[in-house]
Every structure is written in C-alpha cells, then in structure tokens.
From TrEMBL:
Assembly: Heterotrimer of RecB, RecC and RecD. All subunits contribute to DNA-binding.
Further information: In the RecBCD complex, RecB has a slow 3'-5' helicase, an exonuclease activity and loads RecA onto ssDNA, RecD has a fast 5'-3' helicase activity, while RecC stimulates the ATPase and processivity of the RecB helicase and contributes to recognition of the Chi site.
Domain AAA+ ATPase: 217-382
Cellular component, GO annotation: exodeoxyribonuclease V complex
UniProt EC number: 5.6.2.3
Region feature Disordered, mapped onto this chain: 1-21
Source species taxonomy: Bacteria, Bacillati, Actinomycetota, Actinomycetes, Micrococcales
Name of the protein described by the UniProt record: RecBCD enzyme subunit RecD
GO MF annotation: an example: single-stranded DNA helicase activity
Chain segments annotated as transmembrane: none
Length: 628
C-alpha cells in the first residue's frame, strides 16, 4: 500500500528531485495524463478546462481515500497542489487560485491551448465557496492544520497556503538552516582586508571585494549577477582569500545542479585560479574539482530524494560553493543545506532573474528576497556590450517602454523584427533565414573539410531560441524550417546518420565520454571517418559516433535549454502575447544568451507582455527572514 504521507520515503514520490515529471510518477503512472472522461463530479469541469489533468485528480483522490476523506472540495484543493508542483510552485494559495490557475501548468498544456479565453474560464468553473472550502480543508483528516498540525498527513494548510507536506517540511528546513547560518563568523579582519585588496586591487572591483568579505564573515552568502558580471572570477578569488584567512588546507567543494554547469564551473574556476597573480594564492588553492550537487551529496542507487550525506552524516567540507543556483529546486536545496556542517560556509551563486528550475521552487529568488543580509549583487558587465546590457537591464527592471524603445532604436547589436501578426511571414523572417543559411553553410563547409575549430565557431555563431516546444512558434516547427534552409544552402538533406555539419544536442549525462545533457557538438569529417566535435575553438575534442550518448539535431532550442550557454548571435522568436510561457524571465534569459547581437522576432504586444509578466511561483520562503 502507498504511504499516505507522500513524505519521508522515496515512494510514492509526489515529485522527486531530478525528475521533473516525477509529479506524475508513482500513484498515477498507470493513468494516462489526459483522459478527462475518467473524472466525474466537482473536478470534471476543471479537467475539461485543462486546469487539471486527470493524473492530478487521480493522485489527489488516491491520497484523500487513503486518509478516509471523500469531500470533493478537499480533493480539488489537493489536485491543485499537485498541479502547482507541475508549474514549479511548491504550494497553492487558495484565495487566489481562481485567478492564478488559469495559467496552464506546463508547456504541454500551452502547446495545445485551452478552447476558450483563459480569464473567462475561471469564472465558469465551479469554485467552492472560499470560507467553507477552507473550513473543509482544516477539518480534513488528509490535511495537517497549521505548522503544529499532525506530522503524518499528506497535505498541510498554513498561512493561506496548501502544500504537499513534504514540500512544506523542505521549506521549513531551508528556513531553519538559513536562519541558523545568519550569525557572523569571526575572522582576522586585517588579514582579510589584505587578501581582498591583493586579489581585487582595482577601484572598480568593490562589489567583488564585498562578496569576498561577506563569504569570509558569514556562513551563508548569496552572490548574484547577470552573465559576465564576474561571478566565476569571484568564486575563484574568494576561495583563494579563504585559504589565506582560514587555511591553508580548507576543504572546498564546488558544485552545480547540472553536469554541464558543474563541468563549466570547474573549467572556468581553474582558469581563474591559474591566472592569480600571486604565487602563494595559486599554491594555497591548487586545482579544484567540481561535481553535480547530487554527486556531492552522494547519490544512492534507486533513490532520487535521499543521499549518503545528510544531517546525520554531513559533508566534510569547510566551504561549499554552488553555482547556477537559479536551477536549484527546493528539495535539493533543503538536502544540500542539511548536509553542510553548521560551522562551514555556504556560498550560493546564480542569476535570480533567469528562468528557474523546471522542478518546484525558486529558492534563489526567494532567498534574495528574504535574507536580511549576505546577498551581494555584481552589476558590472565585463563581457557584454553596453547595448545588450541596457536591454537586459530594461527587461529585468520590468520597464516595457524602455525595452520597446531600445529594440525600436536597433543598431548593430539589437535587431527587432516587429511582426504584424503572431506568426511571422516569410518576409519577416528574411534576416533570420539569411543568418541560418550563412551559419549553416559555414558549419557544413568547415565540417566537411575537417576544420574542427571552424565548425565549432560556426556552431556557436548563431542560435534560434523559442519559448514553446510545439505549435507555430515552437522548436519542432522551426527546427524543420531551419534544417530545410540549411539543406537548400548545402546541397540537400543527407540520408547519412551523421552527415558532416549536423549540429547535435546531447540529451543525457554520460560519464564514459564526459558529455552532459545540454552539451552541443557538430559532426565533422576526420581522416578516420566522421566524429562529433565538442568544446570551443582551441579547446575541442572529438567523440566517435558509436560512443555518443543519446543526442538529437539542434537547429533551434527552447530558451530553457539555452540556459547556461551563450552564442555570438541569438534570435528569439516570441510566441503570441497571450502565451503564458512568455515571461520576463524567459525574455531576459533569451537576451542574455547573446554575446554580441540579439534579434527579437515578434509583435510589440508580445514584447510588452513578456516584460510585464513575471513567473509566478507560490512559496512561503520569499517572506522576510530575520536573524533573531
Ligand atoms: N574584477 C575584474 N576585473 C577585470 N575583469 C574581470 C573582473 N572580474 C571578472 N572579469 C572578467 O570578466 C569576464 C566575465 O567574468 P566571469 O566569467 O567571472 O563572469 P560570470 O558572472 O561568471 O559569467 P557567466 O555567468 O557567464 O559564467 C571574464 O573574462 C573575467 O576574466
């Protein structure tokens, strides 16, 4: 029988770390996600309106039944909570549910839009009367009422929010760990100041110096900043400073939520460490290794929620630095903080303005919003030109007028193809087509000639990003269009499995080759047949096609997929203004993937909608924390 608490064990996991679709695993695995006719009663219209899937309902019904609950209003609230997890929220705010749940919960739902205008949907659905609904929840045997409610119920009602209990406990855990870490660490101030000024000698580096001071004097520091603001450089130099102030011999762990991000972190931190000016700093820090957070915590076979290192068996490290924390889910952050020794330092690094984890929680953003101190934001862009930085800033600030003005002004760096309708015409995508054709030609020409560096440079020269996977503004459609353009340009489509010049996206992590989900490469001709080139100009490597982990052609990708990568030029093709995927975070992430030039294709309404619509992720963590 299933564990009705959906809590401590690994099964049935309402959702689980590392499995974005895990919400639907376990109890609902036998039920297709989309069979509305199997749901009746109060919940049927919610399924018909695509607010809930029948899998959401099935999980909620099953949990309620195990607790002896048959009130459909409680089942509805439970199903909305399961649905909220699919949409990245850790809980549901019941009072606002009728206006917030009209947003489809995921990409699947929006790729096939609901039949009617979503704002009208909320009004026609049979929402329970709010006061009676809350009363029913608080009295339910399936619901723990308040923070002191029974510990063995699957749902928890607190502060107007309804959680699956395990997520509430994860939030409580993160909150407690963070609060405990707010007490300052005593250090030799003079020594710290000397290290800080030695490592960051320039006047303009004050924010980076502040970050090192914060990391040295507290047990939790959050370091934020957009791309190229010096986060990685700061990580390297703060490790050097800590080795000086508290070392040598401090045990330092570097980690990131994905394999690809971890590999990139290791490479760039070590590059920065090798570039340290002073011999003693280089000697004290040596080479650092980095791993995924899962690996750092010690994966246990068959479990994605429990690790070898936890509150009983903590990590041995004195300093734990985690990069790309915007991609950390709430459960993973809870497990990480529980596993770090209370006296050790934690440094969380990332860009909270980017799209958050596909799993539940936006912990980095919540911490930035709630921490009374210990958050340092780096703002000086070292890699970006002023135009791109200005556009990214306007988007981040939610200034739609400014974003539109900057796009409209255009120039060498910014191009806006302002389309007349939601679906661009052939004329409107003419500059995109020219770009895809010319980079495709360069890619194929270099790849056929066995010019690995040339092919990799062409691979990173331009990337088409989209919000959706399917539909008229989706990756599937535009990949085909782009592939056709390239085929026309390069003598037709090849039937070979690995034609030179084909760009590939690796879709799973693979220890044997050291390739990670999200890595991109290109097929190149070599004297020994074809192989796939990965890396960058001057730092490439070839992988034989028979050793390649699962991969697919990549002529276009979702903005989510593009996270963690940058390209010389980026084209982002926006969906209709009404698409719920069109958010500030999405547009900011897309624009900041570009190093030199950005092209935005879409209507003014779509640009404005994107800048003004923020990703809404319900959680209790964003509320202010105090150190007392
Ligand atoms: N204080 C500094 N003075 C001069 N150059 C710097 C400074 N800090 C960082 N840089 C340089 O700026 C560039 C970007 O820095 P870095 O890679 O650390 O940024 P980042 O925020 O980690 O970027 P991303 O998010 O893209 O990884 C690098 O070339 C780095 O050497």
């Amino acid at each position: 029988m299933s564990d009705p608490t959906l809590g401590a064990g690994d099964a049935p996991a309402a959702t689980s770390i590392g499995q974005p679709t895990g919400v639907l695993a376990g109890p609902s695995a036998d039920v297709p996600a989309d069979v509305p006719w199997r749901v009746d009663g109060l919940l049927a219209p919610f399924v018909a309106a695509r607010v809930l899937t029948s899998a959401d309902v099935h999980v909620a019904r099953r949990v309620a039944r195990l607790c002896g609950e048959d009130d459909e209003r409680v089942v509805l609230a439970g199903a909305l909570t399961v649905r909220a997890l699919r949409a990245g929220s850790v809980c549901v705010e019941l009072a606002t549910a009728p206006s917030t749940v009209v947003e489809p919960a995921d990409d699947e739902a929006v790729d096939e839009p609901a039949t009617g205008p979503t704002d009208q949907l909320a009004q026609v659905l049979p929402w329970p009367e709010p006061t009676a609904w809350v009363r029913a929840l608080r009295a339910s045997p399936a619901v723990a009422d308040g923070p002191d409610g029974p510990p063995d119920r699957p749902l928890r009602w607190t502060g107007g929010l309804l959680y699956l209990d395990r997520y509430w406990r994860d939030e409580v855990s993160v909150r407690a760990q963070v609060t405990d870490r707010l007490t300052p660490v005593p250090v030799d101030e003079a020594r710290l100041e000397a290290a800080v000024h030695r490592l960051f000698p320039h006047e303009d580096d004050e924010r980076q110096r502040a970050a090192v001071r914060a990391a040295a004097t507290s047990r939790l520091t959050v370091l934020t900043g957009g791309p190229g603001t010096g986060k990685t450089t700061t990580i390297a130099r703060l490790v050097a400073a800590l080795q000086d102030v508290d070392g040598p011999g401090l045990r330092v762990a570097l980690a990131a939520p994905t394999g690809k991000a971890a590999a990139r972190l290791q490479e760039s931190v070590n590059d920065e460490l090798r570039a340290l000016v002073h011999d003693e700093d280089r000697q004290r820090t040596g080479e650092l290794r980095s791993s995924t957070v899962h690996r750092l915590l010690g994966n246990r076979p068959g479990s994605t929620t429990r690790f070898r290192h936890d509150a009983r068996q903590r990590l041995p490290h004195d300093v734990v630095v985690v990069d790309e924390c915007s991609m950390m889910s709430l459960p993973l952050m809870a497990r990480l903080l529980e596993a770090v020794r209370p006296g050790s330092r934690v440094v969380l690094v990332g860009d909270p303005h980017q799209l958050a984890s596909v799993e539940a929680g936006a912990v980095l953003g919540d911490l930035v919003a709630s921490l009374p101190r210990g958050v340092v934001e780096l703002t000086r862009e070292h890699r970006f030109g002023a135009e791109l930085a200005g556009l990214a800033h306007a988007i981040r600030a939610g200034n739609a007028d400014r974003a539109v003005a900057l796009l409209r002004a255009g120039g060498d760096v910014i191009e806006w193809v302002e389309t007349a309708g939601d679906v661009p015409t052939a004329r409107e995508v003419a500059t995109l087509e020219a770009d895809v054709r010319s980079t495709g030609r360069a890619l194929v020409t270099a790849a056929r000639a066995g010019d690995v560096d040339g092919a990799l440079e062409a691979l990173g020269a331009h990337r088409l990003l989209l919000a959706h996977r399917r539909g008229p503004a989706g990756v599937a459609h535009w990949s085909t269009v782009a592939e056709d353009w390239v085929a026309q340009e390069t003598g037709g489509r090849s039937s070979a499995p690995f034609p030179p010049g084909r760009p590939l996206l690796v879709t799973s992590n693979d220890r044997a080759t050291g390739l990670y989900n999200g890595d991109t490469g290109v097929v190149v001709a070599t004297p020994d047949g074809v192989a796939v080139a990965f890396g960058a100009r001057g730092a490439s490597r070839l992988v034989a096609t028979h050793r390649l982990p699962p991969a697919q052609s990549v002529h276009a990708m979702t903005v989510h997929r593009g996270q963690g990568s940058q390209f010389a030029r980026v084209s982002v093709l926006l969906p209709a203004a009404t698409s719920p995927l069109l958010t500030r975070e999405l547009l900011y992430t897309a624009v900041t993937r570009a190093r030199q030039q950005i092209r935005v294709i879409g209507t003014e309404a779509a640009v404005r909608a994107a800048v003004l619509r923020r990703v809404q992720r319900a959680s209790g963590l964003g509320r202010p924390l105090t150190s007392d």
